[in-house]
Prior knowledge:
This protein has helices at about 5-25, 40-60, 65-95, 100-110, 130-145, 150-175, 185-205, 210-215, 220-235, 240-260, 265-295, 300-305, 305-340. About 75% of the residues lie in helices and about 0% in strands. About 40% of the residues are buried.
Amino acid sequence: MKHRFAYLDGIRGLAAIFVVTRHTPSYWDFNVFHSYLAVDLFFILSGFVIAHAYEDKLTNGSISFFKFIKIRLIRLYPIFGLSITLCAINLLLNQHLFNGNDAIEFFTTALFIPYPTDSSPELFPLNNPYWSLFYELIINFVYASTRKWQSTNILLSIISISALLLIGIAYTHNDLNAGFFMSIQSISAGIVRAAFGFFTGVLLYRYHAKIYNYTKNRALPYVAFIIVLVSLSLPYSDYIAWIDVITVCILFPICVAFAATPTSRSKSESILLALGSASYPIYVLHKPLSEITSLLINNAEVKFAPYSGIAFMLTIFGLSIFLEKYYDIPFRKKLTRAFVK
């Protein structure tokens, strides 16, 4: 029976917290500069978890490509749909009534289709964090459709080429904070970041049992937490491009390898699993929720920062746990019964 990797859940939850601080600066009165690398960690974790869940099934043919697509969309859409609804409410509260452009933007975004506007060149102006979900789905589908050709050598080739391209992106862009604008350069950067992270995660999964033979130390998962915490907290530096490359290409894979360890059922494991369960709702809901809250309290969060940030973080964490248990899981079960035999 396959087990959950609780430490990986905890790391994902920690990364989601950093993303929230990045997108809600008025609540904190400070900015965690390196937090944009949380997305690269998400991609690596996603590759590991997807391989854990579907690698054998895709290999032996017990699950088809189209069934995999339906499963992935069902996994993402209930919370994503709720997030889209909050974005619509945010538009209405800001007195952006639904004209033709607003309607097109809303419906294309609801279909995971980028729709930059004249006022914003972002792929998803309604809620910028959607950009990583867009690349996540693309790489997921590439992985599932080409699984039978993905030998270890092919994976290593993809990862090596992607790493070289990441170095080029970091050199030309001065960092790896790229991929969310509608331009050839930006989209290329987003695809490379997703490809390197996801396929690195797949490779780590294939060898995690062997790696664990050399990492049987209870302290190593906590070392991984410390590395992630420090990496995402680093301030700006003149060597930021190289720091980004080393973090994404070396440190994050090491963290996932250290944290991919079996856990005993305990109170600490429950906390880690809760962090993991809350991470996706936190990621897609935090921006529209923070903007709606800021509007309703007339920007009062600025006056009480960072306590307003702490209060917002605790609120969205509790809300995410509640939604996952009473909305997301039941809704996904209904969709699965209806669309996946």
